[in-house]
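Exercise 7. Predict the joint structure of the components listed below.
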Amino acid sequence: MTYTTTIQPVSSLPVELDPSRLPAHLAIIMDGNGRWAEQRKMPRTVGHAQGARTLKNILTCCDEWGISALTVYAFSTENWRRPLDEVNYLMSLFERMLAQELEAMHDRGVKLQFLGDLTGLPISVERAVRKAIELTQHNRGIAFNVAMNYGSRSEIVETCRILAARVQAGQLELGEIDEVTFGRELSDGLAPDLLIRTSGEMRLSNFLLWQLAYTELYFTDTLWVDFDRAALLKALLEYQGRQRRFGGLGGAV
Ligand code: FPP
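Solution:
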């Protein structure tokens, strides 16, 4: 599905923002947790714990301001290369957050979805994820998509395999594979309107490579832990000042 802006009276929306020009779908690469902790001479894991709080606040804010979908990069396929202690901490943090926040998110109508290879997660995390998907599947509030054990290149390769198998089985003609069929298989409904990356890094780091083709990119030096409502407002104001042309001369395709 493609997310669309639903303009609703949102009392808490800052007056500077035009509700009809909010990104329907916001994606975030939450970067800088480790540096935030190191700057304070604390273990990197403290940064991740604080980062989880930030995520909770930003999800609530997106929901209140009328953004239809939030997609975050929580753990990449490359993140397994980190020290075992840090990986274990992150996995237990995901599990704990899901356990603590699931009911409250469900009550608010949040629809949780996950991207990435869930079978590669520790079994207890996979179970918590599947429970969250099942519980919230019919919710109609903000879509909260969490990329875990996710890598965009492998997602693209997997899509090639699926389509090739269909061709081999005689279910699909080679000529029928085009950007539309390929994109549909790859969930290109997940194309974000705006991508924010925190902490001053200016890379995509194997995140939603196909889906970001026409996304507006916003980079900020603010570390993820410090990314608050004011920082989000600044990003959204810059987004609203941009003209999206989708390769044409103006207006959406
Ligand atoms: C990047 O900072 C952050 C991560 C790899 C983990 C992000 C996870 C959270 C914010 C926890 C909450 C998530 C959920 C879904 C409950 P970094 O460690 O790369 O920071 P650095 O670049 O300063 O080292």
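Discussion. The longest strand covers residues 69-76.
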